[in-house]
What does this fold into?
Amino acid sequence: MKNSIPLYQTYRQRLSQTELFQNLPLEILDEMLAHFRFESWNKGSVHDSRIAMQRFYLVLEGRMQLTRIHPGTGKQITLSILKEGDMYDVLTLLDGQYHDISPSALDNLKLLSAPIDDVRQWIKKHPEFNDNFMPYLGKRMRDREALAADLGLYDAHTRLARLVLRYATGDAAQGNGDNGGIDVTLLHDLSNETLAHMVGSARQVVNRHLQAMKKDGILHMAHRHLIIDDLEKLKQEAENLQLQLQTSDST
It folds into this structure.
């Protein structure tokens, strides 16, 4: 990306505000930005996972869904939803191996992309970049660990509560939904089938549990936005199995 293009200063400012590139000296930021190009993906588009072998992607605007699909049955699971400031794909960046995961656009996506070999050089060359990259990598690893634990240890109702709570973390500091509730922005407009893919369940099961939480005053849907009405009750639902195990161990 040349610094003479009209939107260069805008891209530099937005890049500097992301978790991975914050607090970098301007000369390093400009050096990195020279390797980036702007891309846009249309909402609903699905992309070949092999793109991550060649390029590193940074989300500027919109949500990217990462999905794994069984080649024989077509059964799928959503591993994560990336938001503004997130990168795709961490694993391929680190080991250079093909990662069978399909990226798709939940919204009209705006992205910056750079050759992945260049990004590997930044990791080696710039300790300032590593100061951001390593904590980000740790957070992503914790997210995958949380998903594995949820699928292996919790029932569908608790997994759904934990999913909503996990994706509400960024919104919980402010009541930005109807009647002061918490609007879980990363989950808005998602169908029950998509939510089911995120918790390893079926659409009908997710619908039943959402209705139960709605009846209990924990959450509701408004204009296809998921709104948390009682955060404390949601936390109790998310820790339900753990509390049961603690009770059984003490008897």
Notes: The radius of gyration is 20 Å.
